[in-house]
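Thread title: Can someone regenerate the structure for this chain?

I was given the following input by a collaborator and told the matching structure tokens would be attached. They weren't. Posting the sequence so someone can regenerate them.
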Amino acid sequence: MELLARLRRVDEVTRAGVSQRDDRQSDLRRQVGALQRLTHQRVARGDRDLRSAHAGVASPYHRVEEVEERRPQDAVPGVPGLSALDIDPEQAAEGYRERVLAPYRSTWAQPQIEALREQLSGACTVEIAAFDELAGMLAGDDPRFDHILFDTAPTGHTLRLLSLPRAWSEFLETNTRGASCLGPHSGFKTRQDRFALARDALIDGAKTTVVLVTRPDRAALREAARTAQELDLLAIRNQELVINAIFTASSRDDAVAVALEARGRAALEDMPERLRAMPTARLPLRGFNMVGLPALRALLTDRDPPDARVEPTSPPETTAMSLAQLVDALASDGHGLVMVMGKGGVGKTTIACAIAIELASRGLGVHLSTTDPAAHVASTLMTEVPNLHVSRIDPAVETKAYTDRLMRVRGKDLDEEGRALLAEDLRSPCNEEVAVFGAFSRLVSEARRSFVVLDTAPTGHTLLLLDATGAYDRQIHHELEDKKVSSVVTPLARLRDPQHTKVVLVTLAETTPVTEAADLQADLRRAQIEPFAWVINGSLAATATRDPLLARRIAAERVQIARVERDHAQRVAIVPWSIEEPVGAARLRALVTGARA
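Best answer:
Regenerated them for you:
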């Protein structure tokens, strides 16, 4: 409870209007936390007249704090001492490309410049450039701030970013060729010392605390434990845990409320040992959305914000379909790729498994696979299902297979020095992206003959995969133009084909998940991929609960459901919150059929 007590002390100081500049040398100095729901902490610290910066990779802080999108490191209105920055990976990547290209513009011909720019168009450039922005903060480039709070992207992508300083430092130390997918190393090596400082700051427990935020849910707790262990492997061990949205039923007569409380309690009782050893704060489920400064300030108190009261409403008119009707539409072509996408924690794996099981139950051949590092598919299914094949795209396995294959094919005619140089090139961290893309492409192609249901990684990671698909598409078309070949069907072309690929966006009926799903839809549309349907998962509004706190959340849910139907989705399916935890083939199919398992 030390973390929660610390935050409440900050809040008390805020309310008293006391300045505590002398605390700057405390153990909180320059912490970088994955705070997510604990945005309240940065609000309170800003109120204290400490100079604080909040940053996030593609993390829309302005939506959480209800301020307009602002320029980097602008002050947040209403919170003295707090500045905020959204790190735009694409802008960061363009800045990186310009740094690499600048030394060559005066000496290279334009075709050479364009070739190097194309080399720098891949996902690796976006990823390393985004981390370069964070590295500057960790390395202490800006002395204006006493604290830095970093609101991270979904977990898998975050771990990838945190591993980059080590991966690239090791590669640069051993690579003698002077180039990689990130261009000439002369530009990249100038950042090597900066990355080393960033790595030192991350592993220094006196400077950095990582706060893992989770929910009282078995899958979410497993994911938090996996993240903690992977952070341990990166030597980032100063970790604390926040368990958010713990619910207590107000009546024993409400079956939904009692089941919701019991499920959370059971998950906490079975919490993985790695998490039990961590300093932990527990926060109750609140009846209001965490949007706006009053709501964020109220998070750690027993009070509601002034405008939090939402009167219960009767169910509005809706055009939403059931999950069974959505599966009918997905099955109509007899084959195809179903990509289930969304941010972490919205139930993508549950929906992907339910869709795959229902398709398989109809006698259709189905391949269910996942790109999610958390890989919860097997534990969600719990058993084998007729007509259903399950697999996982494991980056480590795919990278080793890819490396071994290239060494075998390209290295067979090379001398010892040539094989050593090839092996050196294949140690680049970028090869993981290429290897995973290869496995993804095989799944896309397989869907020409049967159903492939793909449970994707959290959104940021998935967009990198789609970016690789786009880079490959551009490369193929350039080569076809040179060879005067008319056409070829690339993976991106199949993703754009609505007869081949149907994207299902999964969200919760809450402000932030809906907004992030809408952002994902916009990204997909820029790639000319049109989502087929939205699924609003775990809806309390679709249940019969009368619990007072849940009734308040239902009123807020209905606002978001109407927003999805009105502004975003061609098709909407609503999946009610299930009294029985949707684990195991029978219960997963019951999500589709509506029958009790």
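The first helix runs from residue 2 to 16.
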